């Protein structure tokens, strides 16, 4: 017996290296993740490590042979792919190659821009913010994650958290508007929606907060430009949404294209390492934006590719999106002693950590289900319609022009957007297809079937000078009881590289409206855009205006429902509409001027046309007085602010209460007011409900200085709701 035991022990000892090779610790799903990474790092060569830090784009191509040949070129050791195909089988084939043909079998992480939906396209993020409905936003991200996961995606480059400052910059469409708190709140909703309870679950994908940092201040709204931004502004305006997203568990971050006051975002050690990693404790990884490592040369901080790689890597960018700079240059930078091996290991550790959290080592493949079960499910389309409806903002409604009266039996439906199924998806439409989109025309036909006759005329194109369609538009208008004009922007007029020198609609569209005004019929403008518009002239011509944004797959029925009154609009602007383009920058949380009552532009009113928070309803609300549980508060206490809101109209509505705080005197001047909390509730006709905001001094009354240190000063503060402003005092 003893002999048998001894020979068994001997056998195991002699073959230990073989066993270790057969089943190394990183493959043990029960071992702690960090130990699995230690083990894997110890087994990897430098070349394998550097390949993990590399991302390629895998082209969208309908020809299967071609796709396969591209697939053959994908190195099985590659860290990540931007996967533009919708075919889960291709994804699984590529993954199989990584799992079976690479020495260590490390799975690839497949990313894609799932920005506002994948195949079911939801409204653009700017619109979503106007819904003030964080639950709907979270659910839309879960649906997007599910559709994307079933198509082979593990990772989305979303949400975008660049606080809007200049509507000429086309990418305001992709973010949640002009307020840091709103951006932070929707960031949390989006991260939870994409990532679910745990990344290891099916149908969840990793989020990526972008574009870190200060990108929306690109000078003059020109994309990719310099951002002249102070540390004070970075800390109080641009960082809070990212910090909130990190605290919500976002797996990854993308470094921006912009140059932050002389140090580009993709070479910025302060933002990427000191703040993001050291201060906020982010333990996932940073991916550069497309080409932003190479761009360091164009920006004048690197003389060649090798130096751009060195700068980006040492600043804290772990993955190189499509540039191949890391693969080509990091090995020699290590050999020359310019990049420590320990830094390479730390970077690869972060990438592997996310792959382990996603469960990719255990479950590298996605389920392959039939397309009709993958996309556009009934309940997902209903969600898309609801979010579109809640995002739309009734800007103006003179003499209750809307909803349309049921006595109107003839409606003129005019404008370049009426039959469009492309532009209303907005930019970054994911894998959205025009044939899935319910056009406004289709939505109206369904809505008014048997109730009113629709008279269509295009009137004019989006731009150009051709007025020959005006006559038909006028004819349609003359035979109708009301004139509804669908105007707007093409989808590539906003989004990336979609900057415009003016935010007015092209003159031809305004001319069409001016011509239709002469008919004397009730005139309703339905506007679709990826940014706030200059409406100073159109506002005077229209009786009613609705901002539809770019509402996505189900926008047509949502817009039709608002016209008919089936849907009571509840959106409120998450971004200010200036009077004119020249009034930019203008946002509600500006700082006080030295002379608050003068200094504004002489040729236009002082205020913008529509402030942040503006949005009408088909019902009316009356706000009772704001009540505070105490008018003094000590630093360790909390007080409750309450306001009772009554629906004084005749139909149910959803009212969002926005709670602001103003700190009139501080050592570092504060914005005129700052949003601190919001809540949306349904109130039935004739009923009332109480909205509550618990004021926490450290969270709601303190501010950060230019080093990110928080200060809480005693003295007077105000809580603001609607047109009320109530004072309270903070004591020691
Ligand atoms: C954009 C990013 C996007 C990336 C990948 C870049 O050009 O700036 O927002 O995620 O491309 O498609």
Would you mind describing this structure in some detail?
This protein is of the alpha/beta class and 732 residues long. Among the domains are: 262-357, no CATH class; 381-580, 3-Layer(aba) Sandwich (Rossmann fold); 621-731, Sandwich (Immunoglobulin-like), CATH 2.60.40.10. It has 22 helices and 27 strands. Strand 15, helix 20 (538-541) and strand 16 form a beta-alpha-beta unit. Helix 3 (46-52) packs across helix 14 (341-357) and helix 12 crosses helix 13 (325-335). It is globular, with a radius of gyration of 28 Å. It starts with a helix and ends with a strand. Beta-D-glucopyranose (BGC) is lined by residues 113, 157, 210, 289-290, 496.
Distinctive features:
732 residues, alpha/beta, Rossmann fold, Immunoglobulin-like, six-stranded mixed β-sheet, five-stranded parallel β-sheet, 27 strands, 33% helix, disordered N terminus, binds beta-D-glucopyranose
